[in-house]
Write a structure and sequence with these properties.
Length: 246
């Protein structure tokens, strides 16, 4: 696994991250909660009646809110707050998790941009294409959210940061295995001891679920055992949890 430093190497990363994160969020807000006024770039938020102005169409940018008789630029944090407030007004419900996911998505984009600035893209054109999706879905309010964890915990496994790493090999006791389909490709990645079946696992996913009581108990009683790592690295693809093993 290659070490990835999440520190920002360029001064413009925060501004670029704000712009990349604002575009899909604005696409959602304008489509779901606003209507055009007829003036170029100006939209009225239906629930609160406030006026929002943006530049651009496919990737809207530079949001401004009309208050006190003039237009005021919104920071990304203010845009997130406005979106959450507008949704609360429209639905009558509060979703305290959504603003955190929006902010987490923006911070993830910043970490990805910083990492890509100091790393070299893979030579393989297929891998390079799978690892090129920096900004995510254009109509998702938090397309790059990573669950709020520190960047250093997930960047080594991020396709957007040109990640590559070995899989963690587990052994699953045979009497607990339920499977379907052809496992030949998985079986070729290692060897399990007698009485166990090989289970290659994504190290980041394993770290996320490893503290669950049922998983911890399975390791304690021997239903799950650790068998080391694959000899060769794999490359995470755009879906994040899937990998490419050439």
């Amino acid at each position: 696994m290659d070490r990835v430093d999440p520190m920002h190497p360029r001064d413009d990363v925060p501004a670029r991250a704000d712009a990349h994160a604002a575009a899909p969020l604005l696409n959602c807000l304008l489509r779901e909660a606003a209507e055009p006024t007829g003036e170029l770039g100006v939209h009225r938020l239906r629930a609160g009646g406030r006026l929002l102005r943006v530049r651009g169409t496919r990737r809207p940018r530079d949001p401004e809110l009309y208050t006190g008789g003039s237009w005021h630029p919104l920071t990304h944090a203010e845009l997130v707050k406005l979106t959450a407030d507008e949704l609360r007004r429209a639905t009558g419900l509060s979703n305290p998790e959504l603003p955190g996911e929006m902010l987490d998505s923006r911070d993830a984009v910043a970490a990805i941009l910083a990492a890509r600035a100091r790393l070299t893209a893979p030579d393989d054109p297929y891998v390079r294409s799978e690892q090129s999706l920096v900004t995510g879905h254009p109509h998702h309010p938090a397309p790059k959210a990573r669950g709020g964890g520190p960047a250093g915990s997930w960047l080594p496994y991020a396709p957007e940061a040109y990640g590559r790493f070995p899989l963690t090999l587990l052994g699953v006791r045979e009497d607990t295995v339920v499977q379907e389909g052809d496992t030949t490709a998985l079986d070729a990645l290692g060897t399990a001891p007698r009485g166990y079946r090989l289970l290659p696992s994504h190290p980041w996913q394993l770290a996320l679920v490893g503290a669950r009581p049922d998983i911890a108990e399975a390791f304690e009683d021997g239903r799950l055992i650790r068998l080391g790592e694959t000899a060769r690295p794999v490359w995470p693809t755009a879906a994040i949890r899937t990998v490419y093993a050439p």
